[in-house]
Specification:
It contains 7 helices and 9 strands. The protein has 174 residues and is of the alpha+beta class.
Amino acid sequence: MKVQAINEKGMIIDNVEIFVNGVPIGRTPNAVTSLSGAVWKSYNIKARCNGYNDAEFSVVKEPKWLMIILGAFFLWFLWLWAYGAKELQTIVMCKKADESTDFAVANMASVQQFVGKTWQDVFKENGLEQYIAVFEHEKLTDIDTILSLTEQDLEKIGIEKLGDRKRLITVLHK
């Protein structure tokens, strides 16, 4: 498994210290380790870099089709190793806020939910697909812009129901 770190704008950050379950595995872009594909194993990744807030998340897993096929046809117990870590893990890091910063992402999870997905996917996952056309019409397609919207901004672009505005804010900042 290889780990890469990106900032809130999607640019790769080098020289980020990476820990797996508290054990240092190196610095990006060379942070590589082997992890068990056993279904009962779980791993947490922590990233630390000067100028950025520490970030932490659980390893994203994926099916290991070779083990599933071998388990289905030969030895069933191989299925116990059929769900292992994705080869490339990406962690999003936010710059530390200071007095000179106009805008800082308040909650790391609000950026993390967009990794590997479009904002449209996040809206659909949260039952907000009816607002995709509104955002596209207003040309609000940049992740940073979407995350910076306030309830008043949503009202200005035509999200009329108070409950819908509150729900959008909750989704964007969860």
